[in-house]
Design a protein that fits this description.
Layout (H helix, E strand, L loop, with lengths): L1 H9 L1 H39 L11 E6 L3 H4 L1 H15 L3 E6 L6 H8 L4 E6 L1 H13 L11 H4 L3 E5 L5 H6 L6 H14 L2 E10 L6 E3 L2 E5 H7 L11 H9 L8 E8 L2 E2 L14 H13 L16 E7 L1 E5 L11 E2 L1 E5 L6 H13 L9 E5 L1 E5 L7 E4 L2 E4 L3 E13 L2 H12 L1
Parallel strand pairs: 1-2, 1-3, 3-4
Antiparallel strand pairs: 5-6, 5-18, 7-11, 7-16, 8-10, 8-15, 9-12, 11-13, 13-14, 15-18, 16-17
Helix pairs in contact: 2-4, 2-9, 4-9, 10-11, 10-13, 11-13
């Protein structure tokens, strides 16, 4: 023992390195063991769903999974197969996986959507938008077919596998453990609790409409945030560095535009999920005869009131148009989106400090900004305007656009605890 202690003392550098390496290795192995325990418990819970008896004439529930293997720097496929796929298969569902790693999938999506009970999107914010866009290109998107009951009530599940997963903050509790987060999202799909989410339809002059569940950003904070990854070598200082170096451009950085908008709209009552049963034959015959002998009076067409558009000239450092999905209120009586026009009188120090906050919450509306509630808006840009929009963290060329709110058009599976919190907050 003395010789060992002497050797460790004489080679203290190697000893310190070895202790650090063993500590890191032990912690890594313990983390892997905890992840395996989480997977086992989740599979046992999913097996309980799979063991439930169903009538012989009832087909298996079919789920279509849209998986983006490129998400999370190419790790999404492995994350899905290790953490989510076993749970889905053990639940007794008929699962079809579609990889969204190539273009021209509209025809394939059309064939799959004709016979599915639920959709599962496995990826990040970009994958959600890509799936909605591809469905739109196939003339089969859920938004334009809401009048058809077959498609309008298809629930959507979201498994967060990407680098940015804004929707998961609304649908699931926060967690620093990625495996737990994925497993919890997958189990939430099996539990069946859903919440309605708003969608923005963003249409340019000639382009096909783009659909967003989070919102649109245009301005200096967005442009600086895109360049954060270029300063990876600065570690935790990369965010401040990206915003600091962006101040070397022309300052103050202003965006000039004209905005026209309509105010909030009253929310109609929700339609019941179950249709009323068909009345007996004698009741239907009686109604026919009553309509024949005493037809209802003709309705006098009412004049449609002109839309009350508000117009605003704006000069801002950043403009954001966002849904209310982050602050979801299931009991509110009006439907609207948030338009945040940030003041252009921001110092360079404020810009750098606020940039870090905007990276955590891109659609935050700082103090001193003008916030507008609108159901529809038209953004007119001056000729020759350069730059890009950020729509659900995807880049698009800046151009004049019309943004229309489509309230409660998609139903997403959520954790039951999150739904209870929403209802409890609404009551308070």
């Amino acid at each position: 023992v003395g010789r060992v202690l002497a050797a460790l003392r004489n080679h203290w550098k190697k000893t310190t390195f070895g202790v650090c390496l063993l500590s890191w290795g032990g912690n890594w192995l313990y983390g892997k063991h905890c992840d395996n325990l989480l997977r086992r418990a989740a599979c046992q819970e999913a097996q309980a769903f799979g063991n439930q008896l169903i009538p012989a004439n009832m087909p298996l529930k079919k789920a279509t999974v849209f998986l983006n293997p490129a998400a999370c720097k190419g790790k999404a496929r492995n994350l899905f197969e290790k953490n989510a796929a076993p749970i889905l298969h053990l639940s007794g569902m008929d699962v079809t996986v579609v990889k969204t790693d190539y273009e021209g999938q509209a025809k394939k999506l059309l064939e799959l959507m004709e016979n599915t009970d639920l959709i599962i999107i496995a990826g990040g914010d970009g994958t959600v938008q890509e799936v909605l866009q591809e469905l739109s290109d196939a003339n089969l998107n859920l938004l334009s077919l809401c009048a058809q009951a077959v498609f309008s009530k298809i629930p959507i599940g979201f498994i967060p596998l990407g680098k940015t997963c804004t929707l998961s903050q609304t649908l699931y509790p926060e967690s620093t453990n990625q495996v737990y987060h994925i497993i919890n999202a997958t189990l939430a799909i099996l539990k069946g609790e859903t919440v309605p989410l708003d969608v923005l339809q963003i249409k340019g002059e000639k382009e096909q409409p783009v659909f967003a569940v989070t919102g649109l950003r245009w301005g200096s904070y967005r442009d600086a945030g895109v360049k954060v990854s270029k300063y990876w070598y600065l570690g935790p200082l990369k965010t401040k560095a990206a915003h600091f170096f962006s101040t070397f451009k022309e300052w103050p950085q202003r965006r000039q535009a004209a905005l026209m908008y309509l105010g909030p709209t009253e929310r109609p009552p929700e339609e019941p999920d179950e249709k009323p049963s068909r009345p007996p034959l004698y009741v239907r015959i009686y109604r026919r005869f009553r309509l024949y002998w005493s037809p209802p009076p003709k309705e006098i067409p009412q004049e449609v009131a002109p839309e009350d558009w508000e117009e605003l000239k704006l000069s801002t450092i950043e403009l954001s148009i966002a849904t209310r999905n982050r602050q979801l209120d299931l009991t509110r009586t009006e439907d609207f989106m948030d338009i945040c026009i940030e003041a252009d009188t921001v110092s360079k120090g404020q810009f750098v400090n606020r940039g870090s906050q905007k990276m955590r919450d891109p659609h935050m509306c700082p103090e001193g900004s003008q916030c507008i509630h609108a159901s529809r808006c038209i953004l007119q840009l001056p000729e020759g305007t350069e730059g890009s929009f950020g729509i659900d963290n995807e880049e698009y060329e800046a151009m004049p656009v019309e943004v229309k709110l489509l309230p409660r058009k998609l139903r997403f599976f959520c954790d039951p605890r999150m739904r209870e919190q929403m209802l409890h907050a609404a009551v308070q």
